[in-house]
Design brief:
heterodimer; A: 679 residues; Four Helix Bundle (Hemerythrin (Met), subunit A); 5 domains; 5-stranded mixed beta sheet; 21 helices; 20% strand; B: 161 residues; mainly beta; 48% strand
C-alpha cells in the first residue's frame, strides 16, 4: 500500500466511517420514528457494525473495534429473535444504540483531532452485554455470530472471479479489493494469495483475474445469506475504479447477475469514481451526499462528474479548433469559437460550483439528535417533521448554519412548546409539533423552522424595545414583522427575560450574525398560542451572487442585488428631508425611509452628485428598509464573492461595511458593500 | 524574553527603513517582498490601514507602518528618490503587507547581538528587541541598532483596546 501515506489512509478511513455513521443514524432515527426496528433495519445495522469493527481493527483502533463487535453480536442476535414491538427490551435497545452512536461519533471526532486514546469503553460494553443477556433470557451471552468457525463441506465454495483494468500498481489495487472483501466476509481466501508487484503476478492477474472464495459462518450459511453476500460484493466491486468486471463462478450454472454486473461496469463511466468509495453497497446509503463540519471530503454524484468531464472535453475540442482558426487567420470564425468557449466555460463554472453542494441531511441529523435529547430532558413530547433533506447547499454554508439552526430548535423546544398540561388546558394536541423544511428556490435555499407553541409575546417585546430605546419611529409605523425582528437586536434580551417572558431573545442576535456571515437573512412570523415560524433564506452557493457595480464619490464598490427592493431616480430634491444631526429621510409612497448617502458614509473626498443626477436604491436589511444614494450604477452583473481576510474585519472603524470582495475583469478589486450594516 | 538569545545560533533578519529608522524582521516571517503598487483605499477602515492590493487575485491588506510607528511619513520623502516597497508577512494564517521606505539588507545575526528592551513603553511597544550590527571585522559598528519588530503586537493594533 505504498501509494497511500498514513494521513491519506486515515482521511479515507474517517470519510468512510462517517458516511457509515450517517447511514446508521438515519436508520436508527427512522426506526425510532416508527418506534420499531424492522427486519431490514436490523440487517443493515448489523452490517454497518460489522464494517465498523473490521475497519477499526484494520486501523488498530481496538477499543472501537471491540465495542462495534459487541454491537454486531447484539444485532446478530436481534436479527434472529426480534424483540416485541414497543416492549421494554426494545426501548433499551434504542437507548443502547443511541449510546453506541454517540460513542462512535465521539471516537471519530477524537481520531480526527488526534486525541483518540485506545481506551475501552467499559461501561458501554457492559451495557450492551447486559442487554444481550437480558434479551437472551437464559443469562448467557449469545453466541457471537462472527466467531462461528464451522466450515461446511464445500469449504469456501462460493466464488467470484475479478478481472482488473490495466493499470499501474495492479497488485496494490488487488490488495485493496482483498481488504474490502475481507471486511465483507471474514472467511475469505484469494488466489493469488500473495500479491507482489512482479511480472508473474501481474500477468496472472491480467489474464486469469483474482479468485475470491468465501464461506459464511455456520449459522448464517443459508442460501439466502450467500445470495446476499454475492449481491453486496458484486455491487461493491462494480464501484471499484480498477475492477473491469467481476463474475460469479458457481459450480452449477452461471447466474445472470454476474454478467449483468459485467455489462454495467463496462458501460458506466466507472473510471470517474474514486477507488476509495465507501464499502457501503446499498444504494440508499451510498447515493447520498453527506454533510458534516470538518470533513475534508465530499461525495459527488457520478452524473455531476460525468457532465463536468464532458464539458471539459468539449472545451478541449474548442481549443484545437481555435488553433485551426488561428492558423487560417479567420477573424469571424475566431469570434464564433470564442463566444462558444465563453458559454462552455461559464457552464463549467456552474458545474464546478455545484460540486461543492451537499445535501442538508447532516444538518437534519443534528436536529433529530437535539430534539430527542431535549425531549427526554424536558419531558416534553414532540413530533418532529423534517422535509426536503435532499436539498443541496454549499458545503461551507452548512458549517455556519448548524449553530443558528440548533439554537432555534432549542428555543422552540424550551420556550415555544408548552408543557403537556398547559397544552391540554389550551385545547391543543398534547404532543407539540416542530416542522423543519428545506426548499430550493433556485439561487436561494429557504429553511422553515416552525413550532406550534406559545408564540412570541408582542406586547412584551414592545415594552422591552421601549425600555431599551430601540424604536426610532412611532409604534404605529411598525408592522408585526418588524416588531418581531427587534428581538434580534444585540443585547435585546438579558438573562431575566428568559425566565420572565417567552425568552426567545437569548442570543437571537448571534443567530442573525451567523446567518449574515453567509449572506443569509431571517424572518419571523408568530401568533400568540399558535406558534412561531422562522424563515431562513440562504444563498445556495456562497460564491456567486447577482450584483452590481456602483460608484460613490471616488470609490467604486459592488453590491448584492438580493436585498435590493427598488432602484429609482428622483426628479428633484423634494422627497429628501434633511434632518438636523440625523440621517436624512426620503419619502417613497408617503412613507419615510432613512437615506444613506454612500459617498458621505464612506467619507469620500469627492462631493456626491445632486440627488436628481444619482440613483436611489431601496434595500431591505435585517433592521428594516432604507435607501442608499449612489452616484452611479456602473453595471449589473454576477459577482464572485470572496471572503475578506479576518485581519481586515478586525480593522474596521465601527461596524462591518463589507461582506467580501470581488475581482473585476481588469484585475482591480471591488469591495462588496454589506447592506445589513450600513445603517 | 526572546528564546533565541540564549541559543548560540544565528538567525536571518530582513533589515529596512521605515522613516529614518532601521527596522528588522525575522526572515521566517517574511513571505515575499514586492515593489510598491496601486493601493486601493478601504473606506471605513482604521487610519493605520492604507488599503488593499491585489496580489495574484488575492487581496492583501497594507499597513501604513509610518503612521503606526510614528515615523516621518513616506510622502514627506516624495521629492527624494523613493525606494519604497511592501514586505509581505504571515500573520495569523493570513498575509499582511507592510510599507517600508527603503529595503536594506538581509543579515545573519548571532544571538549575542540581540539587545533586550530596557522597558516596554509607549514608544517601543511594537518592538521585540534590538540587534547591534557589526562591521566586517566583527567589531561593533558605529552603534547601529536595528529595531526588531514584534509583529504580533504591531498587527493587533486597535484590537482589544
Amino acid at each position: 500500500m505504498n501509494d497511500f501515506d498514513d494521513g491519506e489512509m486515515l482521511e479515507i478511513y474517517l470519510y468512510e466511517q462517517t458516511t457509515l455513521l450517517d447511514g446508521l443514524n438515519d436508520i436508527v432515527y427512522g426506526a425510532e420514528e416508527d418506534k420499531h426496528f424492522s427486519k431490514e433495519d436490523l440487517e443493515e445495522i448489523f452490517r454497518i457494525m460489522h464494517t465498523v469493527k473490521g475497519s477499526a481493527a484494520m486501523m488498530e483502533f481496538h477499543a472501537l473495534s471491540h465495542t462495534a463487535h459487541l454491537a454486531e453480536d447484539l444485532f446478530s442476535f436481534l436479527q434472529k429473535e426480534q424483540p416485541k414491538e414497543q416492549s421494554e427490551e426494545e426501548k433499551e435497545v434504542f437507548n443502547c444504540v443511541f449510546s453506541v452512536l454517540d460513542y462512535f461519533q465521539h471516537v471519530f471526532e477524537s481520531i480526527q483531532s488526534g486525541s483518540y486514546e485506545n481506551q475501552p469503553e467499559e461501561e458501554l460494553n457492559a451495557r450492551i452485554q447486559q442487554l444481550m443477556r437480558r434479551l437472551d433470557g437464559s443469562g448467557e451471552t449469545a453466541e457471537p455470530a462472527a466467531k462461528e468457525g464451522n466450515f461446511a463441506d464445500t469449504a469456501l465454495g462460493n466464488r467470484v472471479r475479478i478481472w482488473f483494468k490495466d493499470c499501474q500498481l495492479l497488485s496494490v489495487h488487488a490488495l485493496v479489493i482483498q481488504k474490502k472483501l475481507l471486511r465483507l466476509c471474514e472467511q475469505s481466501t484469494f488466489s493469488p494469495a500473495e500479491l507482489e508487484e512482479t511480472d508473474e503476478i501481474r500477468r496472472s492477474l491480467m489474464e486469469d483475474g483474482m479468485l475470491w472464495s468465501f464461506q459464511l459462518p455456520g449459522k448464517e450459511n443459508t442460501a439466502e445469506a450467500i445470495e446476499k453476500m454475492y449481491e453486496n460484493a458484486l455491487s461493491m466491486l462494480e464501484k471499484q475504479m480498477y475492477v473491469d468486471h467481476a463474475k460469479r463462478e458457481d459450480h452449477t450454472e452461471e447466474k445472470s447477475s454476474g454478467s449483468a454486473v459485467n455489462k454495467e461496469s463496462k458501460a458506466s463511466p466507472a473510471a470517474l469514481s474514486s477507488d476509495s468509495e465507501p464499502v457501503d453497497t446499498k444504494n440508499k446509503t451510498s447515493e447520498r451526499s453527506h454533510a458534516g463540519s470538518q470533513r475534508a471530503m465530499i461525495s459527488v454524484s457520478q452524473t455531476k462528474v460525468a457532465s463536468l468531464v464532458d464539458t471539459v472535453g468539449e472545451i478541449i475540442n474548442m481549443l484545437s479548433s481555435m488553433e485551426d482558426v488561428y492558423g487560417k487567420n479567420d477573424r469571424e470564425m475566431m469570434g464564433r469559437v470564442i463566444s462558444q468557449m465563453k458559454k462552455k466555460t461559464s457552464e463549467m463554472r456552474e458545474m464546478t460550483l455545484s460540486l461543492n453542494l451537499i445535501t442538508v441531511e447532516g444538518l437534519f441529523q443534528k436536529v433529530r439528535k437535539i430534539v430527542r435529547e431535549m425531549c427526554q430532558k424536558l419531558n416534553k413530547e414532540v413530533t418532529l417533521t423534517l422535509e426536503g433533506k435532499e436539498t443541496e447547499i454549499d458545503k461551507n454554508t452548512v458549517e455556519h448554519l448548524s449553530n443558528p439552526f440548533l439554537h432555534l430548535i432549542r428555543n422552540a423546544l424550551d420556550h415555544g412548546i408548552e408543557s403537556t398540561e398547559e397544552r391540554l388546558a389550551l385545547g391543543k394536541n398534547e404532543h407539540g409539533t416542530i416542522l423543519v423544511q428545506a426548499k430550493n428556490l433556485g439561487r436561494e435555499v429557504q429553511f422553515i423552522i416552525s413550532d406550534d407553541g406559545c408564540g412570541l409575546d408582542k406586547d412584551k417585546i414592545i415594552q422591552k424595545a421601549k425600555e431599551k430605546n430601540l424604536l426610532s419611529r412611532s409604534l404605529e409605523e411598525y408592522s408585526d414583522k418588524e416588531i418581531y425582528q427587534l428581538i434580534m437586536t444585540p443585547n435585546f434580551s438579558t438573562k431575566e427575560t428568559v425566565s420572565e417572558y417567552s425568552g426567545r431573545g437569548v442570543g437571537m442576535n448571534v443567530v442573525l450574525e451567523e446567518l449574515e456571515k453567509i449572506n443569509g437573512s431571517i424572518q419571523i412570523q408568530s401568533e400568540k398560542d399558535q406558534g412561531t415560524t422562522f424563515i431562513l433564506t440562504i444563498p445556495t452557493s456562497l460564491s456567486i451572487v447577482e450584483g452590481m457595480d456602483i460608484r460613490a464619490g471616488e470609490f467604486q464598490l459592488a453590491m448584492q442585488s438580493s436585498y435590493v427592493q427598488q432602484i429609482f431616480a428622483v426628479t428633484d430634491q423634494t422627497p429628501v428631508m434633511e434632518k438636523e444631526g440625523k440621517l436624512p429621510e426620503i419619502l417613497i409612497k408617503k412613507r419615510a425611509y432613512p437615506l444613506i448617502v454612500l459617498s458621505q458614509r464612506l467619507q469620500a473626498k469627492q462631493e456626491h452628485v445632486p440627488y436628481e443626477k444619482g440613483i436611489m436604491i431601496l434595500v431591505e436589511s435585517s433592521k428594516g428598509k432604507y435607501c442608499i444614494f449612489v452616484d452611479e450604477i456602473i453595471k449589473i452583473r454576477q459577482i464572485v464573492v470572496k471572503k475578506l481576510p479576518v485581519f481586515l474585519e478586525n480593522k474596521m472603524k465601527s461596524s462591518r461595511l463589507y461582506c467580501g470582495y470581488t475581482v473585476l475583469g481588469n484585475g482591480d478589486i471591488s469591495l462588496i458593500l454589506d447592506t445589513n450594516h450600513l445603517f | 524574553m526572546d528564546t533565541n538569545t540564549s541559543e548560540n545560533k544565528s538567525v536571518e533578519i530582513l533589515v529596512f527603513y521605515i522613516g529614518k529608522t532601521l527596522y528588522g524582521l525575522r526572515m521566517e516571517r517574511v513571505e515575499e517582498i514586492i515593489g510598491i503598487q496601486k493601493i486601493i483605499p478601504l473606506p471605513g477602515s482604521m487610519d493605520e490601514i492604507l488599503g488593499i492590493i491585489n496580489l495574484r487575485n488575492r487581496i492583501i491588506p497594507i499597513v501604513d507602518s509610518n503612521f503606526l510607528l510614528k515615523e516621518a511619513s513616506a510622502s514627506s520623502l516624495e521629492e527624494e528618490e523613493k525606494n519604497q516597497g511592501i514586505v509581505i508577512v504571515s500573520f495569523a494564517g493570513e498575509r499582511v503587507g507592510i510599507i517600508v521606505d527603503d529595503m536594506c539588507d538581509v543579515l545573519s545575526v548571532h544571538s549575542e547581538q540581540f539587545v533586550s528592551l530596557s522597558k516596554k513603553n509607549e514608544k517601543n511597544r511594537y518592538l521585540k528587541n534590538f540587534v547591534r550590527t557589526k562591521n566586517d571585522s566583527g567589531e561593533d559598528a558605529a552603534n547601529q541598532l536595528i529595531s526588531m519588530l514584534d509583529l504580533e503586537e504591531m498587527l493587533t493594533f486597535g484590537e482589544n483596546v
